[in-house]
Design brief:
The structure is a homodimer of 437-residue chains. Chain A contains 16 helices and 12 strands. The first copy, chain A, is an alpha/beta fold. Chain A is globular and about 60 Å long. The interface between A and B is large, with 61 and 61 residues.
Chain lengths: 437, 437
């Protein structure tokens, strides 16, 4: 069956997370976790579900961009798309008129991600095997045929990519079994959002420790003395053997990042995340160099807007942890390129997640990374945030601080129809109530 | 008078330039030069006009983004804005929810440019002097107060910026008089779009030479043999003493750029423009290094999305010509930062123009650069394209291949009401006719 796409629907779904300061950090003080949520309808009745994550205001702009891309999708069959997936990726990202709005960055690329995430979901569901998405990307030749190597061949050619993937076939089955049994290691960001009180922070740490968490991330960057107090508090709570990461969400300039983080070295953070502008490759390189003697790495990626930027972060030794995002890059296609480049440079991948749907999506990518690319768990872990999973038909399963491989068909970002209806902005019940307040 | 902004209107204006292949290049084969056109209404009756340039499809997305920013603008007085212009710039670019869509890149930043361009227009018109925009930015302290130095202080601090501007006060009056008399040197891109036939190309070159043009840019990158033929033809037409530039509009990967341009070295181009991805700082650095022995520089900037990227291009010696754009960056505010950084690195600025309204806008920035920053004309020239000027109330004036300083009040991008009405998409007469065809 060809599964011709006959319609593309997109909806503006927003959760009022800012009311309780969930997700608050030094630059995003009041996020309402939201999504541009895409549904592809096919002539076979099969559907594909995709989304891109946003923070509330402006989601309608992403919807507008998704609608602008719809004409390139509707009328195509799934078979047509996946038989030349690289070509389809380029069709969406290189339209002669629309690429001016990016290219491959910002709103138009977030929209591309939403659409392509839905295509990958559809593909996984349509496969004879009717399986979880991460199992769709296991054949080396198929994988490289999905990647647009434009602008990255100076670092990774198609031949090199194929070579990496073919070599990683060895031991694949064992790693898959291992994942099914143990799951993929996770860390939690749920304990220490910037807007939380010390009391809240202590309680959440204590609960998390009881649930088996050993890796914790703390938001910093608004006030140095406050950061020192909060980080000491958490380090004390979690003990010296647990892992602590800190995240500044782009708050600093280069020199300030170095001096501020140096002051926090006493709590022994594994990494400082997003110390400065996500565009500043050379700045991150300077920070990496300055912090290396303190044993602190630099992590970034959730706002790294495409493979060309990741390429340079790797070339410049500007990060020690690659934080891919399932909705910022051009879906699986572009993330595959980044995973392979990270492998080539031997830099561990520790995905960004949280928000709404990011955990559900990115678990597939990191499982793929372990099973089919890196075969390595050292210094690797996937972010986890304990919010909004209840709105998905196949929410992530966390056991003993590990992501358990998803078993349901698809890419795990189908939302409950009722959740979408209630949270649709501005006409859903939740927002009608908020607006009335 | 405070000039309180009481309304912001934005319109989708498109010109069907693709019908005659104007503007065609290796990556944008069928552009319809377009704009998101902003009008600010104030309680005093004074208006501000701004725009951002687009290529047709997707302009509606930029409109949507402008509307999302409108709430941050309406209700503010001009006085309130310009008394803390840095703060207002940051208000638009750092909204806690909307910055996720950038930050400072793509659709949301194009929208910021359109809005801020209108504010600058309004400001110039409102000044007691009621003068051309470039005259609004002459006081050093006022200038630095408009710039957001976030993320660039490792290269340029506020103090250094002020120092540069104060030193350049010397000779300012002579340079202004010189500009009023001679104008600013320009080059033409109108002769050699990729879609033009050889016959058309010869005719246009011949006409341009007669009008006094001595600097010419040719589009390349689609087919090497074709490029060699076209470049030889033009070099023959313009003679050895005229200046020739070539422009690939991001067509190549790094290695390909080096080999392709090396083949074109025989026609002695001054620069190769946009050889690869606009995001690839390290790639441009590699290309610069490889082409330096051939005497060919690298130029880029029309899709360089913010000051953080320009900072790195300068730090990495990745360009030899800085091509600022009046609509890609956050208006005058962000361009001021780039002009000052370029001065610090002693790299000449040669603005991108053309499209619709870009010449009208950018002439102000380059006049400012000469009069108040660089005081230097060596290796400097501003792009000119001979299209669509007739739609503006104060179109650019070119004399003997020089931009003559604009004399009308404002930032020169007010369009004729009739032009806007006829070209509004999709309901204007021009588009109704096209759609009926």
């Amino acid at each position: 069956m060809s599964h011709k796409i006959v319609n593309l629907r997109v909806r503006d779904v927003r959760f009022p997370t800012s009311l309780e300061q969930h997700g608050s950090d030094a630059m995003h003080t009041d996020p309402d976790y939201s999504a541009a949520y895409v549904v592809l309808d096919t002539d076979s009745g099969l559907k594909g579900f995709g989304l891109t994550f946003t923070l509330g205001k402006g989601t309608e702009i992403v919807l507008c961009a998704v609608k602008a891309l719809a004409g390139l999708v509707i009328g195509k069959s799934l078979q047509e798309i996946v038989s030349n997936f690289r070509g389809f990726y380029r069709l969406l990202t290189s339209d002669g008129q629309m690429r001016w709005l990016g290219p491959e960055k910002g709103v138009i690329h977030l929209a591309t991600a939403a659409v392509l995430n839905a295509v990958w979901d559809l593909w996984a569901r349509a496969e004879g095997k009717y399986h979880a998405m991460y199992l769709s990307i296991q054949d080396p030749k198929q994988i490289v045929s999905c990647i647009d190597f434009r602008y990255i061949t100076d670092v990774l050619t198609e031949e090199e990519a194929l070579d990496i993937l073919v070599k990683a076939q060895e031991g694949k089955k064992q790693r898959e079994d291992q994942m099914l049994k143990e799951g993929y290691p996770a860390y939690t960001t749920s304990c220490a959002w910037l807007g939380y009180s010390d009391q809240q922070l202590k309680q959440l740490c204590s609960d998390a420790l009881k649930s088996g968490w050993t890796r914790f991330k703390v938001k910093v960057g608004a006030d140095l003395e406050d950061d020192i107090r909060r980080c000491r508090l958490i380090r004390k709570m979690i003990g010296p053997s647990s892992t602590l990461m800190i995240d500044a969400n782009q708050r600093w300039d280069v020199a300030e990042a170095i001096s501020w983080v140096s002051r926090l070295a006493e709590v022994k953070p594994l990494w400082i995340e997003e110390p400065t502008s996500p565009d500043d490759i050379l700045g991150h390189a300077a920070i990496s160099k300055a912090l290396a003697p303190l044993g602190i790495g630099v992590a970034t990626g959730e706002q790294c807007h495409n493979r060309v930027m990741f390429k340079q972060f790797l070339q410049a030794s500007a990060l020690q942890f690659v934080q891919i995002d399932s909705c910022r890059l051009g879906s699986v296609n572009e993330n595959l390129a980044v995973l392979l480049m990270a492998y080539k440079f031997q830099v561990p991948v520790c995905p960004h997640a949280g928000g709404v749907g990011l955990c559900e999506l990115v678990q597939h990518l990191i499982l793929f990374d372990y099973i089919c690319v890196s075969a390595d768990l050292r210094n690797r872990m996937c972010e986890y945030v304990d919010h909004l999973h209840e709105h998905f038909t196949s929410p992530v399963v966390i056991q003993d601080a590990h992501y358990m491989p998803p078993k349901d068909p698809g890419y795990s970002c189908e939302m409950l129809e009722e959740s979408v209806n209630r949270h649709e902005y501005p006409e859903g019940d939740i927002w009608k109530q908020e607006i009335q307040k």
